[in-house]
Design brief:
Elements: E1 3-7, E2 15-27, E3 32-38, E4 42-47, E5 50-54, H1 58-72, E6 78-83, H2 88-93, E7 101-106, H3 109-118, E8 131-135, H4 138-143, E9 149-155, H5 169-178, E10 179-188, H6 196-209, E11 212-219, E12 227-234, H7 257-262, H8 268-274
Parallel strand pairs: 6-7, 6-9, 7-8, 9-10
Antiparallel strand pairs: 1-2, 2-3, 3-4, 4-5, 10-12, 11-12
Helix pairs in contact: 5-6
Length: about 280
């Protein structure tokens, strides 16, 4: 008998995956956590029934949410990741030699624990001496750390439940204050196909906090529609005009120097959405 996982965070559509084994299924203090072995995408992490990452396509998300802001900033030394308990963002951040410290602020300790056990390919750098893991509320953490980080990455789950507060305009103002004078912020901001109102609101809120706000897209097969947005806010540097030539000194699978600038060229319907 075939066993299938069905993700239906979008009411009018669903994504289904055949799985061979369920490795973890538990209720944490904050959410339902499941790790499965899928046939097409390998090992897969789900939170509240929504796919967060898979072995096969995680590199797309983690490279784009990290290398775009880190190559936009000329010399990022201290980086904060809010959420991202799977560790993929930290893994990519620490490839940048300029980074002296990367802080992971994750509210759910169980995510880190189970990813260390079952997703070591993704969670492999959390014990790196340059990484500090803090278990707690990202909103509170940002509020308590002013003018401290060169780059802040909001690697959150979808804007429901525990992560809902990470998509608010007031939170982006707190992020602005936690950044250094030329700091850069980035967040994953959903799909313009199924959640256009979320994309529109995030861009609007970011523009209220940051003098430079840009949206870019990436193709991520296991996220609804496969067409995903990221919003980047900057105090000084325009990410779409960043000169990244010669900066990429380590291997990547999705991000390239040419893609850095090209990803900010948006389809017409997305341009119209965020005007």
């Amino acid at each position: 008998m075939n066993i299938w996982v069905k993700e239906n965070q979008i009411q009018e559509a669903a994504m289904t995956y055949e799985i061979s084994e369920t490795l973890v299924s538990k209720k944490t203090k904050y959410q339902d956590l499941t790790i499965v072995d899928s046939i097409s995408f390998g090992r897969m992490l789900l939170l509240d029934g929504i796919v967060q990452t898979t072995i096969k396509d995680e590199f797309i998300y983690h490279e784009m949410i990290t290398h775009i802001p880190l190559f936009t900033h000329p010399n990022p030394k201290k980086v904060l990741v809010i959420g991202g308990g799977d560790g993929g963002a930290i893994r990519e951040i620490l490839k940048h030699k300029s980074v002296e410290k990367a802080v992971l602020c994750e509210i759910d300790e169980e995510v880190i624990k189970e990813c260390k056990n079952y997703l070591p390919e993704i969670c492999c750098e959390l014990d790196n001496p340059r990484c500090e893991v803090f278990i707690g509320d990202g909103i509170k953490y940002v509020h308590e750390h002013k003018n401290e980080f060169d780059v802040i990455i909001v690697d959150s789950t979808d804007p429901f439940g525990a992560a809902e507060g990470l998509f608010g305009g007031s939170f982006y103002k707190e992020i602005y204050n936690a950044l250094t004078e030329d700091g850069v912020f980035i967040a994953q901001t959903e799909t313009p196909y199924y959640l256009p109102e979320v994309v529109q609101k995030v861009v609007k809120d970011s523009k209220m906090a940051f003098p430079i706000t840009k949206l870019f897209m990436a193709a991520i097969p296991t996220y609804p529609s496969g067409f995903w947005s990221f919003t980047i806010g900057s105090k000084t540097y325009d990410p779409a005009k960043a000169n990244v030539e010669g900066k990429l000194t380590f291997p990547t699978k999705y991000y390239t120097e040419k893609l850095h600038n090209a990803c900010f060229v948006l389809p017409k319907f997305v341009e119209d959405l965020i005007k």
